[in-house]
Amino acid sequence: MKIFVDTAQIEEIRKVKEWGILDGVTTNPTLLSKTGKPWKEAALEILKEIPDKPVSLEVIATDFEGMLKEARELAKMGDNVVIKIPFTNEGVKAVQALKAEGIKTNVTLVFSPLQALIAGKAGATYVSPFIGRVDDIAHGGIEVLEEIVQIYTIYDIETEIIAASIRHVDHVKQCALLGVDIATIPFKVIEQMFKHPLTDIGLKKFLEDAKKANITIL
Ligand code: E4P
After folding, report:
1. Are 204 and 180 in contact (CB under 8 A)?
2. What is the SS3 assignment for 7?
3. Ligand 1: residues whose CB is within 6 Å?
4. Residue 172 C-alpha to ligand 1 middle, in angstroms?
5. CA torsion angle for 161, 162, 163, 169 (degrees, to 10)?
């Protein structure tokens, strides 16, 4: 499973990159607004930090022509730009037009298997079902994801599934068990994925015993 970090904070992106587990970045207007920088400056910084990995940047326009114009501008910002397009009728049309121009897309705000099926049929590069937000309204986000994986497998749909709106480590585990292509994960949750109390306890004991036995390697 590829790991994307769901953030626009450059420090967080750099850390995950240093850990050697970063496969891409997803942003949205909310995440970009949290950087406190002008959006373009923040976006360019990210694109340059990981020039060989996909970075999703979202359009603001909601009409077909407007989305195309914005997507073309965003695509000029770097070879690694992926255009995030909201799942609407206009958005689905835009995905097809952008595909014809060789521009990669990530269909966002997907909450149902049927929306994901349409995004796949439209030829989106990626589709982003939002897990946490489905859980928030007392429906099963993981169940929705499971059905999407099933449909995509049955029809051999090439669009890559990005599990989005991930809230905790168990979401990540469920995504991995379902075999989703990618999980886009908030930085804090990636940090938590490293942690296990038994690792800390075990390491402490090994170090104490090394001291007792005068083990020095260098
Ligand atoms: C996906 O690409 C979105 O940026 C993100 O996962 C949304 O997550 P949220 O529901 O925590 O805002």
Report:
1. no
2. coil
3. 6, 26, 28, 108, 128, 130, 132-133, 164-165, 184
4. 14
5. 120
C-alpha distances in Å from residue 119, one per residue of 7, 28, 91, 115, 122: 23, 18, 9, 6, 5
Retrieve residue 137's tokens.
Answer: 């309204």
The string over 45-67, giving b where at least 16 C-beta atoms fall within 10 Å of a residue's C-beta and e elsewhere, is: ebbeebeebbbbbbbebeebeeb
The amino acid present at 65, given as its one-letter code, is E
Question: pLDDT tens for residues 70-120?
Answer: 999 999 999 999 999 999 999 999 999 999 999 999 999 999 999 999 999
Assessment of whether the complete model's pTM goes beyond 0.85: yes
Confidence of residue 59 (pLDDT cuts 50, 70, 90): very high
Hey, which of 28, 144, 185 would you mutate to test ligand 1's pocket, going by the most ligand atoms within 8 Å of its Cβ? 28
Q: Which atom of ligand 1 is nearest to 106's Cα?
A: 2
